[in-house]
Amino acid sequence: MSPEQVAADWRKRFFRWAWLRVGVLWTIAYLLAWGVITLVVRGAIDADATWLWWGAAGVLPAWGWAGYWTRRQVPSKPTTMALLDRENQLGGMLMADSAVGREPWTERLGPIDCPRVTWQGKPGGFVLGLSLLFVLAAQWVPMPRASQASNALDVTRTLDWMQQQVEVLAQEQVWDNAEAEQTLAAMDRIHDQSDGDDPSKTWEALDHLAEQIDQASDEAVGLAQQRMEEAAGVEALSQALQEGLDSLAPDRLAEAMATLAELADAAAGEPSLDGMDLPHGLTEALEQAGQRQEAITLTPQMLDQLGEAMAQRQSQLQELLEALDAAGLGDIDPDRGGDWEPIDPTDLLVWLEGEGQCDGPGLLTACRSLRAGRGGIDDGPGHAEMIWKDPASREGVAFTPELLPQARLQDLLDARLLGTSRGAPEPIDGAQGSAGGALAETLTNGGSAAQKQVLPRHRGAVRRYFERETE
Amino acid sequence: MHQPSHAPPQLLQPSDLEPVVELTAQVLADLDAALLGQAELHRLVLAGVLSRGHILLEGMPGVGKTVLIKTLSQLMSLKCNRVQFTPDLMPSDILGTTILQQSSDGQRRMSFEHGPIFTNILLADEINRASPKTQAAMLEAMQERRVTVGGETRHLADPFFVLASQNPIDLEGTYPLPEAQVDRFLFKLHVQQPDAGVLEQILDTRRRGEAQAPGSCVSEKRLRGLFGVMERVMLPPPVARYIARLVAASHPGCGEAPEVVKQYVTHGASPRGAIAMAESARALALLSGRPTVGFEDVNTVAPHVLNHRLILAYQARFDKVTAQEVVAGMLDAIDETGLKLPKGLQVESKGSS
User: Fold this and answer.
1) CA dist A72 → A30, A75, B344 (Å)
2) Taking the mean position of all CA atoms in its chain, how far away is CA B189?
3) Residue B116 neighbours by CB distance under 10 Å
4) Predicted pLDDT of residue A205
5) Mean of pLDDT values over A319-344
6) How close B347 gets to chain A, by Cα (Å)?
7) What is the pLDDT of residue A341?
8) Rounded to an integer, what distance in angstroms lies between the CA atom of residue B189 and that of residue B198?
9) H/E/C letters for each residue in chain A?
10) How many CB pairs under 8 A join A and B?
11) Closest-CA residue in chain A for B296?
């Protein structure tokens, strides 16, 4: 291989290693820039940013430009020949132009070793790996949802949670669609208008919405629990009447039937949800029974149907309560909506057949208050009618925040020096001095710094002190 | 056949170079036989002679400076004069003087009495003991190889070398050579003390320290032939560029100057130093039997060419840094080829691993 060929081969090697080096360096710089831009874009826009992966295509131009730049850095042919001459210790033989008759000497030179070109690329490779990890992290790291305003207040999680609650309320027909959509629209407005400079406004609005949702859910829970009790009462009463159709007195049976109709109507009331789908004949019979007609309109079959419908109604309401509870809605009373024992139809029948007073309100109370200790059937002392009402409204009861006056110390801290006077201090008209401390109630007097005014009740003790006989 | 003037000079052919190499090898062998243990010094001295340069030898008394010069003059069959420089030596004692002479017929006329400088090799022993006036008398002779006495200019013999010696110790009563004088010396060579083995060899082969007479003699014709061949030794452009960069880098204001130069040097080498380096590198290439000058030739002569041309700062004396160390730092810092490798890239010869 001639010296010129060796030089050309070495220049190719140099170009490859230098290209690799520059390419790695430029790729590192590009990856870092790409990662920073990705973070900035993902933080600035609230949209899908997967298109940023196309930035990987920029690596190819970086390597192309690195190749172009490196080609200009490849040593010239004379420099390469000088390098070969030095490394092979040829004493300048290769540096002499071939036109000066170098042949007789080059034949004596023997083979020319081509020096190796190496690159200490471990640090560069390590940094390249870090840059790649940085880009991947910039693409995949979860970013807080950006807002258009730079000082936005991030209430996304709160709104998401409230949105789920509203959807549950709409799904369980506690709220109709219009009311739910109105609430969702209000939530969107809060999200758009959330301002980090004035977060109290946003939090107040969110509190208002949360209060609306809680109120609706509390009302729904309360009604559902009340309807469940009423449905259970209807179920028990229908079973008792089914057995006592023949044994009960007619007037008491009519009273019981009217109570049954009233309870059934209440149990089918709001939250009606899907409502109760009672057979038409049963509905008419219940209406007639509610009018306290003496004619018995409810047959044993109808009573059986009514009992089954009420059992179904209870399970339906139980599902509603469970759904609300899963959504964190409603203050469900476990004693009321949980495992309570309904009134025993046999006991009820016995009570109906008894000689005690068994009018309509008494029967209603007995059937609505099913549990012991809560005004149910109890012949002992303390028997009293307990009336359960709807939960009291919170309106007007909530605490009204009041801005307290700032402390006097804060006034001093906030004070600003307006000027300095060289004159004697002058009292300000209307200003009062210190009201506390050791010098309170002291009077200035000639000859003493302060004269304490002795209270009348102490004057005797002071006088005795100064009039005591000295030894 | 007439050749165009722009045609590149042809390289020396092996047949032209082989007799010269043989002759110089013989001279070196004779020098080595005369003065034991100083082979590298002999090589540099011969390179200086082939470069037609003046050489300043510095060494302790008794290391063989005078013997070397006398042996060289005997080998070259050149006329050699020795002048022992003393403080009371006058310029006329070296250059010569015009005296009034009376002929046999009674006529009187002024005649020039040639001084010892009219010779081929002037051995200026302990040159730093002469007064500055006497030292300055040699400036014209060393650079222009002529002297002017009494308004008349007289050319010196050709070839003309000044081989001066000076003692690095016992400096009381001496006059350090001025920079202009020092710059005229091609080399400043330090004659080292021989080691114990060489001393034993000297004791075994020398009676009363007398060196054996050289076995060969180079005639004036063959010497001029050597000079002719020297003219044809090629200095490749990259090597010339390297010499230029080296000399330029000896100045602290140069961009390529290494840190050791910026720290310890106040004034660098002159263009005369670059010429001296190129010529002496040519001579070394010739002694090595090569028709071209390589980087290694420059690296060999650079310390001896530059060490007396660098004016060191006070910081160098404070840090006890010598000119040789500064030049060594320069040679380490400056790449011969001028190749600027990117950071992280390395060039390794196959043999180095």
Assistant:
1) 21, 8, 18
2) 8
3) 16
4) 84
5) 70
6) 5
7) 63
8) 19
9) CCHHHHHHHHHHHHHHHHHHHHHHHHHHHHHHHHHHHHHHHHHHCCCCCHHHHHHHHHHHHHHHHHHHHHHHHCCCHHHHHHHHHHHHCCCCCCCCCHHHCCHHHHHHHCCCCCCEEEECCHHHHHHHHHHHHHHHHHHHCCCCCCCCCCCCCCCHHHHHHHHHHHHHHHHCCCCCHHHHHHHHHHHHHHHHHCCCCCHHHHHHHHHHHHHHHHHHHHHHHHHHHHHHHHHHHHHHHHHHHHHHCCCCCHHHHHHHHHHHHHHHHHHCCCCCCCCCCCCHHHHHHHHHHHCCCCCCCCCHHHHHHHHHHHHHHHHHHHHHHHHHHHCCCCCCCHHHHCCCCCCCHHHHHHHHHCCCCCCHHHHHHHHHCCCCCCCCCCCCCCCCCCCCCCCCCCCCCCCCCCCCCCCHHHHHHHCCCCCCCCCCCCCCCCCCCCCCCCCCCEEEECCEEEEECCCHHHHHHHHHHHCCCCC
10) 120
11) A91
Minimal CA–CA distance to A100: which of B291, B210, B98? B291
Min distance B280 CA to chain A CA atoms (Å): 14
Name the interface residues of A facing B (CB cutoff 8 Å): 14, 17-18, 21-22, 73, 75, 78-79, 81-83, 85-93, 95-97, 99-102, 104-105, 108, 113-121, 123-124
DSSP symbol at A185: H
Q: How far apart are alpha carbons A203 and A191 in whole angstroms?
A: 11
Question: What is the model's pLDDT at position B118?
Answer: 93
% of residues, chain A, pLDDT over 90: 7
Question: Which helix (H) or strand (E) element contains residue A129?
Answer: helix A122-140
**From A9-23, A308-322, A391-405, A457-471, the region with the lowest mean pLDDT:** A391-405
Residue of A nearest to B10 (CA): A100
The partner residue sitting opposite A97, judged by closest CB among B8, B14, B353, is B8
Among B235, B347, B350, select the one facing A83 at the smallest CB separation. B347
Q: Which residues of B touch A121 (CB under 8 A)?
A: 344
Closest residue by Cα to residue B247 from B233, B261, B259: B261
A95·B236 Cβ contact <8 A: yes
Q: Is the ipTM above a cut-off of 0.85?
A: no
From the CA of B40, how many Å to the nearest CA of chain A? 18
To the nearest whole Å, the CA of B321 is away from the closest chain A CA by: 29
pTM beyond 0.95: the answer is no
The confidence band for A385, taking pLDDT boundaries of 50, 70 and 90, is low
Tokens 């969702």 belong to residue: A184
Confidence grade of residue A371 (pLDDT, cut at 50, 70, 90): very low
pLDDT in tens, B39-75: 899 999 999 999 999 999 988 888 888 888 888 888 8
| Residue A365 or residue B132, greater confidence | B132
**Contact check, Cβ <8 Å, B345/A17:** yes
Q: Please report residues of A whose CB lies closer than 8 A to that of B13.
A: 101, 104
Planar angle of CA B186, B192, B197, nearest 5 degrees: 140
- pLDDT at residue B50, rounded to an integer: 92
Query: pLDDT tens, A106-164?
Result: 777 778 888 888 888 888 889 999 999 998 998 888 776 554 455 667 788 888 888 88
Of A189, A188, A173, A179, nearest to A212 (Cα)?
Answer: A179
| Token duo for residue B328 | 């060594």
User: Which pLDDT tens digit goes with each residue over B276-307?
Assistant: 999 999 999 999 998 999 999 999 999 999 99
Distance CA B108, CA B100 (A): 7
Q: Render pLDDT for B88-102 as a digit per residue (tens, 0 to 9).
A: 999 999 999 888 888
Query: For residue B353, is pLDDT > 80?
Result: no
Q: Which of B239, B348, B350 sits opposite A92 (nearest CB)?
A: B239
Residues of B in contact with A113 (CB under 8 A): 349-351
